[in-house]
Amino acid sequence: MEEALIKLSPSSATDFKSCPQLFKFRSVDRLEEPVSAVQARGSLVHVALQRLFALPPDERTPQGASWVLDEVWAELSADEEVRPSELTEAQEREWLDESRWLLNNLFQLEDPRAVSASRLEWWVEYELVETHLRGIIDRVEERADGDWILTDYKTGRVPGEARELTAFFGLRFYALVCWRAFGVMPREIRLVYLSDPAVLTLAPHERMLLAFEKQIVALSAAIRRALTTGDWRARPSPFCMTCAFQTMCPAWAAVPSSQAEGPPEGGP
Ligand code: SF4
After folding, report:
1. Is residue 109 within 8 Å of 118, Cβ to Cβ?
2. Burial class of residue 162 in the structure, from the number of CB atoms within 10 Å of its CB (0-12 exposed, 13-18 middle, 19+ buried)
3. CB-CB contact of 29 with 255 (8 Å)
4. Exposure of 101 by Cβ count < 10 A (0-12 exposed, 13-18 middle, 19+ buried)?
5. What is the pLDDT of residues 197-248, one digit of tens each?
């Protein structure tokens, strides 16, 4: 990470918010971690959706989606970022079937033939007070009246009501980048949950994005402080049980492996 500029994507910002030590492992030390079946399924489904919406509208059918998935898997099955680690052949078949089921659920939420996507998997960036915001927006629709709709696909479950605004963290991040970099306030941001399936929407406005911008500036300042002091607080939570860095995490150093069945004391 450059000293002068803190580089933040929605996922790295979320890492720091949830556990500064996790952010350090991933974004400062840049340690590798195995690809879980859940992460790999998310990557595969995202690539398949990108291909689906690049097809002529009348080919964006459930059969077309299934064909696209097979095509993407044939191309990417050797790619370690897409192929899950440690799956047996039978588990891999089940995993592919789940990916197909997720893709198929999209048709319960919208008719892909009617969607006019202007940009797919669009890389965006903006420099904000010593902070470089960057990331990839899954889908942007630019409507005839000039309105922008940003869509983010999710393969996990819909959050409870109390966590809805948190779930929009990534899309508020992208709405801020669109507003600052292109002068466009998106009309709507949409979270498309393929497993439930369900769509959550939010209409960004100036006050919301100004408050979010302050939050990002404060987050960036906290990261800069941690870089200077070396104080990366480990914040144990139930997520530790799936964290790839648990064995090297200071929060777990004093816990015998036989007792590592829940977060150590100090966690929620
Ligand atoms: S094991 Fe828990 S506390 Fe340690 S880095 Fe991972 S998430 Fe943070």
Report:
1. no
2. exposed
3. no
4. exposed
5. 999 999 999 999 999 999 999 999 999 999 999 999 999 999 999 999 999 9
**Amino acid occupying residue 88:** T
Pocket-forming residues, ligand 1, beta carbon under 6 Å: 19, 21-22, 25, 234-236, 239-240, 243, 245-246, 249, 251-252
- 178-203 pLDDT per residue, tens: 999 999 999 999 999 999 999 999 99
Give the residue whose CA is nearest to atom 2 of ligand 1.
240
Tell me the C-alpha distance between 243 and 32, whole Å: 12
Tokens of residue 147, six digits: 């309105």
Side chain identity at residue 65, one-letter code: A
Is the four-CA dihedral 96, 100, 105, 106 of positive or negative sign? positive
Cis bond leading into 159, ω under 30°? no
Specify the pTM: 0.90
The CA distance from 134 to 156, in Å, is 23
Mark out the alpha helices in 124-253 (DSSP H runs). Answer: 164-167, 169-182, 206-229
Q: Give which of 2, 11, 25, 12 is closest to 224, Cα–Cα.
A: 2
